Amino acid sequence: MVDSTDNNEIVDAMTEPYDSVTGVVVRAVSTANDCDPLDLPPLADTVDGDVLEALFPVPDSDLTVSFEFAGRAVVIQSPATVYVQPASRSE
């Protein structure tokens, strides 16, 4: 499920226990960018997907990870909660 909020954040909660963190990130960013997930650059060019999966093995993880991907700031607070916002640009 992908929900948009008023401040352009997107929260994507995993709906099935077998959903991967990387899949959740790609779905959330493609929704934010209004594009097909296959139109995004490979996530592996930005972050190691195996590392993301290893960092979030259970839904109640206390870890937070953030990075930029496809013009978006991505914050993962647990495998079930991914926030996506426009990436901030330093001028």
Question: Can you describe this structure?
Answer:
The chain is α+β, with helices and mostly antiparallel strands and 91 residues long. The chain has one domain. The chain has helices spanning 21-32, 49-55; strands at residues 2-4, 10-12, 65-69, 72-78, 81-86. It has a five-stranded antiparallel β-sheet with strand order 1-2-5-4-3, with helices on one face. A hairpin with a 2-residue loop joins strand 4 and strand 5. The model has no long low-confidence stretch (mean pLDDT 82).
In short:
Helices cover 21% and strands 26% of the residues.
Number of strands: 5
Low-confidence stretches: none
**Secondary-structure element sequence?**
EEHHEEE
Instruction: Return the domain count.
Output: 1
User: Using only CA atoms, what is the Rg?
Assistant: 12 Å
Portion of residues in helices?
Answer: 10-25%
Biggest sheet character: 5 strands, antiparallel
Number of separate helices: 2
Shape: globular
- Percent strand equals 25-35%
How is the largest sheet built, in terms of strand order? 1-2-5-4-3
Key traits:
91 residues; alpha+beta; 5-stranded antiparallel beta sheet; 2 helices; 5 strands; 26% strand
Tell me the layout of helices and strands:
Elements: E1 2-4, E2 10-12, H1 21-32, H2 49-55, E3 65-69, E4 72-78, E5 81-86
Antiparallel strand pairs: 1-2, 2-5, 3-4, 4-5
